[in-house]
Amino acid sequence: MQNLIKLNHVYKSYTQGQLTTxxxxxxxxxxxxGEFVAITGPSGNGKSTLLNLLTGIDRxxxxxxxxxxxxxxxxxxxxxxxxxxxxxxIVFQFFQLLPSLTLLQNIxxxxxxxxxxxxxxxxxxxxYLLDRVGLTKQGKQLPGQVSGGQQQRAAIARALANDPALLxxxxxxxxxxxxxxxxxxxLFTALQQEGKTLVIVTHNxxxxxxxxxxITLHDGHVSSDQCLSKPI
Length: 232
Known about the structure:
CATH architecture: 3-Layer(aba) Sandwich
Number of domains: 1
Helix content: 25-40%
Oligomer: single chain
């Protein structure tokens, strides 16, 4: 299997005044193309920080983060922004859809930012992605007019807009009922079967078992790393 993500001795801390708090300590791990990785652990142990480093939203204090042969720590902020738009899809716990845009327009927006697809193709791709997540009939509705589960599915479609190599999600089912949450994870599993690489932070141990790999963080270290099934 080909490594999509390589973390080499990554250290991250935050300083406030004279107090420095280590969050991630000497993290080294590889994630292969096509893996579905669930990251769990107690609150405050570095899960969201790890996702922020993988997406280039934050930078490590030391160590290397290499994704798809790009060393993120070497990129300037403008370069990181362009790289992120082309290579990473992000799904947030609170959806973060723009309330004044329809679901269809929300999905088109990332395509407009990076110009990966010609303008004439973007609307068709947005319709395709809505259909892919089961929202064919909701495209013209505003986020506030659909359920939380439908908003999250639209957010996943938006994250897939530019066909990124990596999809990351931070507590994507935290605000959903158990039945809707299971539907979201079924969608994630289907995306893995299609070749996507997924890294998901969750507190739900049962849902984490649907992943092909389960990593547990504790006190800023990898305390457990288990393969639950063979990567697709």
